Amino acid sequence: MAGFEDLSQAVLEGDEARVVEVTKSLLDSGVDPLDVINKGLITGMDRVGVLFKNNEMFVPEVLMSAKAMNAGVEVVKEKQQAFDMPSLGKVVIGTVRGDLHDIGKNLVAMMMESSGFTVYNLGVDIEPAKFVEAVKEYRPDIVAMSALLTTTMMNMKETIDALKEAGLKDKVKVIIGGAPITQEFADEIGADGYAPDAASATELCKQLVEGREKVGVPA
């Protein structure tokens, strides 16, 4: 019988049909759905993240792996009607005001989602007030902001200032990324972290939610 390694490898290879087949086989044999998710599907995406970070996998391959992983998750949901998909935490993500770049931000969102985070993707050209509204509505653990232009990166600071004015900055962790962004800039504007790529952003979020008691807007 196929096992977790087979499922992980199928995700890594972006083999959607094989992922569906192995997921069904594991569930039919009585394997805990949580183990199928954590030890097979997410483990596969974790391997994808490492390879992507090391430039050994590229965006089209990552997208195929994510699609295959999501197909497996859907099988779990279909077969286990009462199954609640576990979440590592909640992330609100968006590209800041004045910036219309979407691809990198969407890749980060996809990697986070595939790794087990619940992601609220606000889109592009997001006003600071809209980030604040989203934090109040979704109560995330993390706010992730993207900017690809030097002319828009300062809007990250405006968003952080807006969160402070709303009394929310101490309730969430803020991470930033994008082509012109550096760790020094993150420190300068008061962000809690910086990630140079999608895989690093996902790893950073995992590290930040380890201190979960320190983050998250109360209900």
TrEMBL record:
B12-binding domain location: 88-219
Keywords: Cobalt, Metal-binding
BP GO terms, sorted: homocysteine metabolic process; methanogenesis; tetrahydrofolate metabolic process
Molecular function terms, GO-annotated: cobalamin binding; cobalt ion binding; methionine synthase activity
Alphabetized InterPro entries for the sequence: Cbl-bd_cap, Cobalamin-bd, Cobalamin-bd_sf, Corrinoid_p, Met_Synthase/Corrinoid, Meth_synthase_dom
Residues of the B12-binding N-terminal domain: 1-88
GO cellular component, one term: cytosol
CDD domains listed in its UniProt record: corrinoid_protein_B12-BD (cd02070)
Family note: Belongs to the methylamine corrinoid protein family.
Entry-linked NCBIfam families: pyl_corrinoid
Entry-linked PANTHER family: METHIONINE SYNTHASE
Name under which the protein is recorded: Trimethylamine corrinoid protein 1
Taxonomic placement: Bacteria, Bacillati, Bacillota, Clostridia, Thermoanaerobacterales
